[in-house]
Amino acid sequence: MPFSKELKEYLARFGEGIPYDYVMNELKKSKLLPEPVKAWEYSAEPILRALPQIKSINSNLQAYCYGDPFDEKTLVEILVESTILTLKSSITGEIETEKWRKLLLQEQWHRKETLQREVEFIVVKAGQHEISVCVSGSNGAYIASELKEEGYKTKVTRIGETLSPTPLDVLRKEINTPEISDERIKELVLLHIKYIKEYVLCSKNPDHAYLKWHLSSNKLNEKVE
Protein backbone atom coordinates (compact mmCIF):
# COMPACT_ATOMS: atom_id res chain seq x y z
CA MET A 1 0.00 0.00 0.00
CA PRO A 2 1.34 3.48 -0.88
CA PHE A 3 0.83 4.73 2.69
CA SER A 4 3.45 5.78 5.23
CA LYS A 5 5.27 2.89 6.92
CA GLU A 6 4.19 4.43 10.22
CA LEU A 7 0.61 3.29 9.47
CA LYS A 8 1.37 -0.46 9.36
CA GLU A 9 -0.20 -1.13 12.75
CA TYR A 10 -3.43 0.62 11.76
CA LEU A 11 -3.46 -1.12 8.39
CA ALA A 12 -3.50 -4.45 10.23
CA ARG A 13 -6.50 -3.32 12.28
CA PHE A 14 -8.45 -2.40 9.15
CA GLY A 15 -7.63 -5.85 7.72
CA GLU A 16 -8.84 -7.59 10.88
CA GLY A 17 -12.29 -6.13 10.32
CA ILE A 18 -12.32 -3.71 13.27
CA PRO A 19 -14.99 -1.06 12.46
CA TYR A 20 -13.66 1.46 9.95
CA ASP A 21 -14.84 4.57 11.81
CA TYR A 22 -13.26 3.40 15.07
CA VAL A 23 -9.85 2.72 13.52
CA MET A 24 -9.97 5.94 11.51
CA ASN A 25 -10.71 8.00 14.64
CA GLU A 26 -7.76 6.37 16.40
CA LEU A 27 -5.59 7.06 13.37
CA LYS A 28 -6.59 10.72 13.33
CA LYS A 29 -5.72 11.01 17.03
CA SER A 30 -2.27 9.57 16.33
CA LYS A 31 -1.34 12.66 14.26
CA LEU A 32 0.37 10.36 11.74
CA LEU A 33 -1.79 11.35 8.79
CA PRO A 34 -0.60 14.00 6.33
CA GLU A 35 -2.57 17.23 6.05
CA PRO A 36 -5.17 17.80 4.79
CA VAL A 37 -6.51 14.65 6.46
CA LYS A 38 -9.83 14.70 4.58
CA ALA A 39 -8.02 14.63 1.24
CA TRP A 40 -5.90 11.67 2.39
CA GLU A 41 -8.94 9.75 3.65
CA TYR A 42 -10.90 10.47 0.46
CA SER A 43 -8.39 8.54 -1.66
CA ALA A 44 -7.50 5.92 0.98
CA GLU A 45 -10.99 4.94 2.20
CA PRO A 46 -11.96 2.59 -0.68
CA ILE A 47 -8.75 0.57 -0.20
CA LEU A 48 -9.01 0.47 3.60
CA ARG A 49 -12.66 -0.64 3.51
CA ALA A 50 -11.79 -3.44 1.05
CA LEU A 51 -9.01 -4.91 3.22
CA PRO A 52 -11.26 -7.11 5.44
CA GLN A 53 -12.89 -8.67 2.37
CA ILE A 54 -9.51 -9.31 0.73
CA LYS A 55 -8.21 -10.79 3.98
CA SER A 56 -11.23 -13.10 4.23
CA ILE A 57 -10.48 -14.44 0.74
CA ASN A 58 -6.80 -14.97 1.50
CA SER A 59 -6.08 -15.45 5.21
CA ASN A 60 -2.32 -15.62 4.50
CA LEU A 61 -2.29 -12.10 3.11
CA GLN A 62 0.50 -9.90 4.46
CA ALA A 63 -0.11 -6.17 4.06
CA TYR A 64 2.71 -3.62 4.12
CA CYS A 65 2.97 0.15 3.77
CA TYR A 66 5.89 1.25 1.59
CA GLY A 67 5.48 5.03 1.79
CA ASP A 68 8.33 7.14 3.12
CA PRO A 69 7.16 9.18 6.19
CA PHE A 70 9.63 11.99 5.43
CA ASP A 71 8.33 12.12 1.86
CA GLU A 72 4.77 12.89 2.94
CA LYS A 73 5.84 15.77 5.19
CA THR A 74 7.98 17.32 2.47
CA LEU A 75 5.30 16.93 -0.20
CA VAL A 76 2.75 18.62 2.07
CA GLU A 77 5.13 21.58 2.38
CA ILE A 78 5.46 21.71 -1.42
CA LEU A 79 1.68 21.43 -1.81
CA VAL A 80 1.15 24.34 0.60
CA GLU A 81 3.65 26.46 -1.33
CA SER A 82 2.00 25.66 -4.69
CA THR A 83 -1.40 26.52 -3.18
CA ILE A 84 -0.05 29.89 -2.03
CA LEU A 85 1.39 30.58 -5.49
CA THR A 86 -1.92 29.61 -7.10
CA LEU A 87 -3.89 31.91 -4.80
CA LYS A 88 -1.52 34.85 -5.36
CA SER A 89 -1.66 34.40 -9.13
CA SER A 90 -5.45 34.13 -9.16
CA ILE A 91 -5.72 37.39 -7.22
CA THR A 92 -3.00 39.46 -8.91
CA GLY A 93 -3.03 37.88 -12.35
CA GLU A 94 0.78 37.74 -12.22
CA ILE A 95 2.57 34.41 -12.69
CA GLU A 96 5.86 34.05 -10.81
CA THR A 97 7.40 31.67 -13.33
CA GLU A 98 10.77 31.32 -11.60
CA LYS A 99 9.16 30.33 -8.30
CA TRP A 100 6.97 27.77 -10.09
CA ARG A 101 9.99 26.38 -11.92
CA LYS A 102 12.07 26.10 -8.73
CA LEU A 103 9.25 24.55 -6.71
CA LEU A 104 8.32 21.89 -9.27
CA LEU A 105 11.96 20.96 -9.91
CA GLN A 106 12.36 20.54 -6.15
CA GLU A 107 9.25 18.34 -6.08
CA GLN A 108 10.51 16.26 -9.00
CA TRP A 109 13.92 15.69 -7.41
CA HIS A 110 12.32 14.78 -4.09
CA ARG A 111 9.87 12.32 -5.66
CA LYS A 112 12.70 10.62 -7.56
CA GLU A 113 14.78 10.15 -4.40
CA THR A 114 11.78 8.92 -2.42
CA LEU A 115 10.63 6.50 -5.10
CA GLN A 116 14.05 4.88 -5.17
CA ARG A 117 13.92 4.28 -1.39
CA GLU A 118 10.41 2.86 -1.70
CA VAL A 119 11.44 0.50 -4.49
CA GLU A 120 14.34 -0.77 -2.38
CA PHE A 121 11.90 -1.51 0.45
CA ILE A 122 9.51 -3.33 -1.91
CA VAL A 123 12.34 -5.43 -3.35
CA VAL A 124 13.34 -6.54 0.17
CA LYS A 125 9.75 -7.45 1.10
CA ALA A 126 9.18 -9.24 -2.23
CA GLY A 127 12.21 -11.42 -1.50
CA GLN A 128 10.57 -12.60 1.73
CA HIS A 129 7.55 -14.17 0.00
CA GLU A 130 7.46 -17.15 -2.34
CA ILE A 131 4.08 -16.73 -4.06
CA SER A 132 3.20 -13.25 -5.34
CA VAL A 133 3.34 -9.58 -4.43
CA CYS A 134 0.74 -6.96 -5.38
CA VAL A 135 1.86 -3.33 -5.32
CA SER A 136 -0.75 -0.59 -5.54
CA GLY A 137 -0.01 3.02 -6.47
CA SER A 138 0.38 5.44 -9.35
CA ASN A 139 4.03 4.51 -9.94
CA GLY A 140 3.24 0.90 -10.76
CA ALA A 141 4.98 0.84 -14.15
CA TYR A 142 8.26 2.13 -12.73
CA ILE A 143 8.15 -0.21 -9.74
CA ALA A 144 7.39 -3.15 -12.05
CA SER A 145 10.39 -2.30 -14.26
CA GLU A 146 12.68 -2.17 -11.21
CA LEU A 147 11.36 -5.51 -9.92
CA LYS A 148 11.86 -7.00 -13.37
CA GLU A 149 15.51 -5.97 -13.26
CA GLU A 150 15.77 -7.85 -9.96
CA GLY A 151 14.57 -11.01 -11.71
CA TYR A 152 10.87 -10.97 -10.84
CA LYS A 153 8.09 -11.71 -13.33
CA THR A 154 5.87 -8.64 -13.38
CA LYS A 155 2.49 -7.58 -14.72
CA VAL A 156 1.01 -4.09 -14.67
CA THR A 157 -2.79 -3.75 -14.47
CA ARG A 158 -4.44 -0.35 -14.90
CA ILE A 159 -7.81 0.05 -13.21
CA GLY A 160 -10.34 2.44 -14.72
CA GLU A 161 -10.17 4.81 -17.65
CA THR A 162 -7.03 6.82 -18.38
CA LEU A 163 -8.12 10.43 -17.92
CA SER A 164 -6.68 13.61 -19.40
CA PRO A 165 -3.87 15.10 -17.27
CA THR A 166 -4.62 18.30 -15.40
CA PRO A 167 -2.65 21.44 -16.37
CA LEU A 168 -0.48 21.05 -13.26
CA ASP A 169 0.26 17.42 -14.19
CA VAL A 170 1.35 18.58 -17.65
CA LEU A 171 3.55 21.27 -16.10
CA ARG A 172 5.14 18.71 -13.78
CA LYS A 173 5.95 16.55 -16.78
CA GLU A 174 7.39 19.37 -18.88
CA ILE A 175 9.22 21.35 -16.17
CA ASN A 176 12.43 19.35 -16.53
CA THR A 177 12.72 19.90 -20.28
CA PRO A 178 15.38 22.53 -21.08
CA GLU A 179 13.25 24.12 -23.78
CA ILE A 180 10.28 24.97 -21.54
CA SER A 181 9.83 28.76 -21.64
CA ASP A 182 8.40 31.22 -19.15
CA GLU A 183 5.47 31.70 -21.52
CA ARG A 184 4.70 27.98 -21.45
CA ILE A 185 4.83 27.98 -17.66
CA LYS A 186 2.45 30.98 -17.58
CA GLU A 187 0.09 29.23 -20.00
CA LEU A 188 -0.11 26.08 -17.89
CA VAL A 189 -0.39 27.93 -14.56
CA LEU A 190 -3.30 29.99 -15.95
CA LEU A 191 -4.97 26.77 -17.07
CA HIS A 192 -4.32 25.33 -13.61
CA ILE A 193 -6.06 28.31 -12.02
CA LYS A 194 -8.97 27.85 -14.43
CA TYR A 195 -9.16 24.17 -13.49
CA ILE A 196 -9.34 25.06 -9.78
CA LYS A 197 -11.94 27.83 -10.24
CA GLU A 198 -14.21 26.24 -12.85
CA TYR A 199 -13.94 22.56 -11.98
CA VAL A 200 -12.62 21.84 -8.47
CA LEU A 201 -14.51 24.59 -6.63
CA CYS A 202 -17.71 23.82 -8.56
CA SER A 203 -17.67 20.05 -8.00
CA LYS A 204 -18.79 17.86 -5.12
CA ASN A 205 -15.45 16.02 -4.95
CA PRO A 206 -12.05 15.84 -6.71
CA ASP A 207 -13.08 12.84 -8.85
CA HIS A 208 -16.12 14.69 -10.17
CA ALA A 209 -13.95 17.72 -11.04
CA TYR A 210 -11.38 15.50 -12.73
CA LEU A 211 -14.04 13.72 -14.82
CA LYS A 212 -15.59 17.02 -15.95
CA TRP A 213 -12.13 18.26 -16.96
CA HIS A 214 -11.52 15.04 -18.89
CA LEU A 215 -14.80 15.34 -20.80
CA SER A 216 -14.16 19.02 -21.51
CA SER A 217 -10.63 18.27 -22.78
CA ASN A 218 -11.94 15.55 -25.09
CA LYS A 219 -14.55 17.88 -26.59
CA LEU A 220 -11.89 20.52 -27.18
CA ASN A 221 -9.62 17.99 -28.89
CA GLU A 222 -12.49 16.88 -31.11
CA LYS A 223 -13.10 20.48 -32.22
CA VAL A 224 -9.41 20.99 -32.99
CA GLU A 225 -9.30 17.82 -35.07
Description:
With 225 residues, this protein is mainly alpha-helical. The chain has nine helices and no strands. The chain has helices spanning 8-15, 20-29, 37-57, 69-92, 97-126, 140-149, 167-174, 182-200, 206-224. Helix 4 (69-92) packs antiparallel against helix 5 (97-126), helix 5 crosses helix 8 and helix 7 packs antiparallel against helix 8 (182-200). It is globular, with a radius of gyration of 20 Å. The N and C termini lie far apart (40 Å). The model is unreliable at 220-225 (pLDDT under 50).
Quick synopsis:
The protein contains nine helices and no strands. With 225 residues, the protein is mainly alpha-helical.
Sheet with the most strands, sense and barrel status: none
Shape: globular
Could you name the ranges where pLDDT drops below 50 across 5 or more consecutive residues?
220-225
Query: Terminal Cα separation, in Å?
Result: 40 Å
Rg computed from alpha carbons, rounded to a whole number of angstroms = 20 Å
Helix content: 55-70%
Mean pLDDT: 84
Order of helices and strands: HHHHHHHHH
- Proportion of β residues? under 5%
Number of helices: 9
Beta strands, count = 0
> Which class best fits the helix and strand makeup?
mainly alpha
Short descriptors:
225 residues, mainly alpha, 9 helices, 66% helix, globular, disordered C terminus
Topology record:
Layout (H helix, E strand, L loop, with lengths): L7 H8 L4 H10 L7 H21 L11 H24 L4 H30 L13 H10 L17 H8 L7 H19 L5 H19 L1
